[in-house]
Amino acid sequence: ATCGHGCKYGECMGPNKCKCFPGFTGKTCNQDLNECGLKPRPCEHRCMNTHGSYKCYCLNGYMLMPDGTCASSRTCAMVNCQYGCEEVKGQVQCLCPSGGLQLGPNGRTCIDIDECSTGKAVCSYNRRCVNTFGSFYCKCQLGYELKYSSGRYSC
Predict the structure, then answer these.
(1) 155: enclosing H helix or E strand
(2) Residues 139, 127: contact at Cβ < 8 Å?
(3) Gene3D superfamilies, alphabetically (predicted)?
(4) Does residue 53 share a domain with residue 103?
(5) pLDDT tens across 66-96, in order?
(6) In this structure, which of 14, 19, 38, 74 has its CB flanked by the most CB atoms within 10 Å?
(7) pTM for this model (two decimals)
(8) Which of 98, 72, 99 is nearest to 86 (CA)?
(9) Owning domain of residue 108
(10) Are 71 and 65 in contact (CB under 8 A)?
């Protein structure tokens, strides 16, 4: 295949037909393609066109992610919370999914609150408290069994 005018940044595919390398355009692939002007935009915040390519930049307080998006520099992914997090007044705080859990000393993992030993759990007469991860339940004392009568359970 011959391309009379040449293919500056591309490959000759047939009589005077060029296939441009990524980042270039035009009949002879001699023009830089402005990727920053493409839709969808390749960068979330700021884009700078370079010869044959482009560079993404983020606004202050944000970090460039591999996919071209910008993430707050204090994101959940960076804090590595066990159950997810929320941003409060510019600070990332890890969350625990139930009231029976609290953040551990590292501020990222949740530890169980023993409601039975702290007195937070109240079990009715003839029942004892059994702690579980994140909660508790009441069980009949030894020697008693659970009965259902008049629409309620009792031991």
Answers:
(1) none
(2) yes
(3) Laminin (2.10.25.10)
(4) no
(5) 777 887 766 666 777 887 777 767 677 888 8
(6) 74
(7) 0.46
(8) 72
(9) 75-112
(10) yes
